[in-house]
Amino acid sequence: MLALTRFYLTTVGKKFVMAVTGIFLLGFVFVHMLGNLQLFVGSAKLNAYAAFLHGNPKLLWTFRVVMLAAVLWHVLIAVQLTLRNWANRPQKYKVVKYREADVSSRTMIYGGIFLVAFVFYHIAHLTLGSVGPVFDAQNVYGNVVAGFRVWWISAFYVVGMVCLGLHLYHGAWSLFQTLGLNHPLYNPLRRWLATGFAVLVAGANIAMPVAVLAGAVK
Prior knowledge:
Elements: H1 2-9, H2 11-36, H3 43-54, H4 57-88, H5 103-106, H6 108-128, H7 140-148, H8 151-178, H9 187-214
Helix pairs in contact: 1-2, 2-4, 2-8, 6-8, 8-9
């Protein structure tokens, strides 16, 4: 136990835990995306899916608690690593030239902050019904369509999904390296998987508000 605690307190240990919690979050956003895509099938299908989840409260709340713990732990470690990195470099460089760091890695902290705000709004919008034009707990399809008909709500979701895509790409790319799966022979595959996953999830989620605004989903 003492050895595990010492390992956790190291930068490598914290990155390892961040990678593990990241795997949980990658799985969540993928499953969440699959469930939400039933919007394109019709109201009966999406509402039946929502009714199934709420009809199994033990399963639903177990899933929520696990994901909440993963999110909080992930965010905590991200903050700790960022503060540690700033402390190790108290004086900024006069000239910054990036060689390896791409847009996704340079915007992780800012995109992460926006995503936290987005999650709070998303829960308030479609889970609690405290924001948005209408809310009917029995008609999730109607709540989604009514919300996405408001252009600024759709725009907010699109920006959120762009941030999510960048976050997913860097997270998926980095966790392989953190877990020791870094090799020149396999790195092109790593990059392809990270890019494909990020584009798939972000693109599918962006398609929903765009489809509602375009009138394809009514």
